[in-house]
Amino acid sequence: MPAVDRIDTSSERTPLLAGTPTPTISSRSPSPGNPITVSSTSETLAGEGYNDNDPTLSPSAAAASQLRALLRPRVIIVSLFLIFLLEIVIGVSVPPINAIMESIICRQVHPDLFPSPGQGHPPVVEPAIPTLPDIFSVVLPGGGLHRIRHFAGGVVLVDDPACKAPGVQGYLAMLRGWQSTFESIVGLIVTVPYGILSDRWGRRGVMALSMAGIVASYAFMYLVFYFEDIIPLWVSLLSAAFQLFGGGGTVLVAMIYTMLADVIPSEERAVVFFRITSVFLGSQMIAGPIGGALLDWSPWLPLLLSLFAGVLCNVLILAYPETVHVHARKRTGQEEDEEARDGYENWAKTLRARIASLWKKAGEGAMEAWDFIVTNQSVAFMLIALTFLVLGRYVSELLLQYATDRYGWSWSKASLVLTVRNGGSLFTLLVVLPAVSWFCIQRLGMDSVSKDLWLARWSGILYIIGSLIIACAVNGTLFSVGLAWYALGSGMLAMLRSLVNAVVEEHHVGILNSLIGFTEVLGMTFAGPALAESLSIGLERGGAWVGLPFFLSAVLFTISTVVVWVFRLPQNKRGLVGEVAV
Questions:
Q1: Minimal CA–CA distance to 263: which of 3, 569, 501?
Q2: pLDDT at residue 158, rounded to an integer
């Protein structure tokens, strides 16, 4: 387990860890009973979004602004590369994981499709190129023809319509759904504690631990596949336990957004978040087809590639600068004495006492996080919208299986067709949304926060339309049209993240983004089994019922969109047009 280096927190005493109440967003003032020692300049930076070029900044705040400006390019560049590699880890592994799990389930349901060597199957046809898998055909008693491919570790892939039957696909959807749920439960347990830990010890160490847990999780799943004759397939669900170390992808993404929020002014975050999402989508366009193409050679090639990319991610995290200390705050002499004394005592404590102290601080932080939600209605409202948005977006995880089931496509072809969605999302984020943003700001006179709110509202409507078209698509052409409409709403999550970061104090962004991750994980906990079960029901009933998961996602998007349309910005965040135009 990678070590988490403790950093000097003398310049960043997070109120969430100190146990002081969180000021409300509307008042921007501390609670009368427990005042928070924050300089007026720092309060302005936190409440209204800092400005690195503001000549009225105090010397300490000016130094912090200069540090942010210095670290900003490096944090952005490393984040872009990390997101790219992270999607390679995930994207290239999806087609082979689905194909291997499908064949293992199909072997259990239809053992007659997989004759053992002693049962007189036809001889193996030697491939022309040694690196190609062994391929041979088996003629079934009923006259059907299918293809069997054998690979290292006893993995056998078969192309047969029987493997697309509801019994096989329903069980596959259930396994994938519960896999997501177990990972979500892990996130629910550790997301907020790791967020608190990042505010005290630093972001980079938490990120490294998260990435190590992700790589270990994938490696365990691949071992289950390799020894599939010995280890039952359901054991792969236990791979989620490895993500207890670092919190998995939820904590990792939360830390990326937190480090970006640490060094980027609030008015510039939406643009950077769009770039992050664009890189994510661009890497998806590459990863999916690569995984599908390599699957035609061997499922182990994309799986090993994903592990290699995961190791590179951990190396790349070392290039991050630590950003937890960049917020300028004025501390009293009493606070300095307390921190010095705490530091001396921490070194003198035993390991057991240090762990007990950490759990105590985590408990205090969790209570403070709850108070933060209760006393900040704007944040609570947006978290509701984010929860239902994540619930609806989970249906994207079913797109690959949905396409192979409904239209009879291979995993490789479905991976290629799904680039329509990724390409459309990339075009939306790089062309459509910047153009609309320019029009809203330059022509309509909106400020950046109000603009993000309106774009999030309309993006939700586009999500609803796209989901309904996909649900009703009776052929691949309509399916592609639905994917294009769905892609037009792809900026909604980034805009909601930007909005919620804009209405809180800067020194709370760590716990805020962890809470966002917490709500996302909470949503996926229920979305995985629910949408997987809806796909299973749809496949069993056939006809229009096959689109049931996307009808459900349209309902979830509707709830999220209604919440965003009802939401009103705090009074001090309304721009020239803003909510007056509502």
A1: 501
A2: 61
Is this model's pTM higher than 0.85 or not? no
In whole angstroms, how far apart are CA 106 and each of 95, 228, 299? 16, 13, 17
277 neighbors 490 (Cβ within 8 angstroms): yes
As a whole number, the mean pLDDT across the chain is 73
The single-letter code of the amino acid at 28 is R
The CA dihedral of 138, 142, 144, 150, to the nearest 10 degrees, is -30
d(CA 501, CA 512): 8
Domain boundaries, the chain: 62-101+164-327+367-581
- Helix intervals (H) in 321-447: 333-348, 351-375, 377-393, 399-407, 411-417, 419-427, 433-438
* Neighbouring C-beta atoms of residue 420, cutoff 10 Å: 18
Across-strand partners of 137?
A: 147
Mean pLDDT of 131-160: 48
Asked if residue 57 has pLDDT above 60, the reply is no
Structure tokens at 312: 């590179």
Are 281 and 36 in contact by the 8 Å Cβ rule? The answer is no
Name the DSSP class of 121: P
Strands 156-159 and 134-139, how do they pair? Answer: unpaired
Helix (H) or strand (E) holding 49: none
- More confident: 375 or 547: 547
Q: Indicate the fold that domain 62-101+164-327+367-581 takes in CATH.
A: Growth Hormone; Chain: A; (1.20.1250)
Contact predicate 437/455, CB 8 Å: yes
- Measured in whole angstroms, how far is the alpha carbon of residue 337 from the centre of its chain? 40
Confidence of residue 216 (pLDDT cuts 50, 70, 90): very high
Between CA 160 and CA 555, with CA 164 as vertex, the angle to 5 degrees is: 160
pLDDT of residue 144: 40
Half-sphere exposure of 213 (CA within 13 A, CB side): 25
Does 39 have pLDDT greater than 90? no
Q: What number of residues does the chain have? A: 582
pLDDT of residue 478: 92
CA 259 to chain CA centroid, Å, is: 15
The whole-number average pLDDT for the span 451-464 is 92
C-alpha pair distances (Å), 414 with each of 279, 291, 405, 549: 21, 11, 10, 18
Cα 195 to Cα 512: distance, rounded to the nearest angstrom: 9
Give the pLDDT confidence score for residue 479 in this predicted structure.
Answer: 93
- Can you tell me the distance from the alpha carbon of 348 to that of 170, in angstroms, rounded to the nearest whole number? 56
Q: What is the pLDDT of residue 368?
A: 62
d(CA 354, CA 356): 5
Does residue 137 carry a pLDDT above 60?
A: no
Lowest mean pLDDT segment, chosen from 120-124, 391-395, 436-440, 507-511: 120-124
Strand partners, 135: 125, 149
Edge-to-edge order in the sheet of strand 156-159 = 134-139, 145-150, 156-159
Q: Is the dihedral of CA 377, 378, 384, 386 positive or negative?
A: negative
Six-digit token string for 403: 């396409």
- Which residues are within 8 A (CB) of 14 and not within 5 positions of it... i.e. 6 or more apart? 199, 200, 507, 510, 511
